[in-house]
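Example protein was shown:

_____
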Amino acid sequence: MVAEGGLVPAERRVVESPAGDDADPLVNALAATGYEPVCAGVDIRLRNCPFHRLAEQHRDLICRMNVSLVQGMIDALPGDGRTARLDRGAAGCCVAVAASRPTS
């Protein structure tokens, strides 16, 4: 199933995994925390912000907090090389998760 803009709901990918061996622990953690993760190519985008009401009044603070929160989830996963970044789009959350850490 492909959603608007070519995005594939990440939770759909996890559900369709027959043996559960392709389940992404980060996607599961994001969904359990109230985010709605979707796969956008190799990146993960978040369709919503669980802190939307706060973000309406304190956008910069809440967006930076979101990046830190998601990066903390990534850092808690052994060997996960992804990174959270601030990427404000027209809709959804301000956080995107890159497939791997950028090289310097």
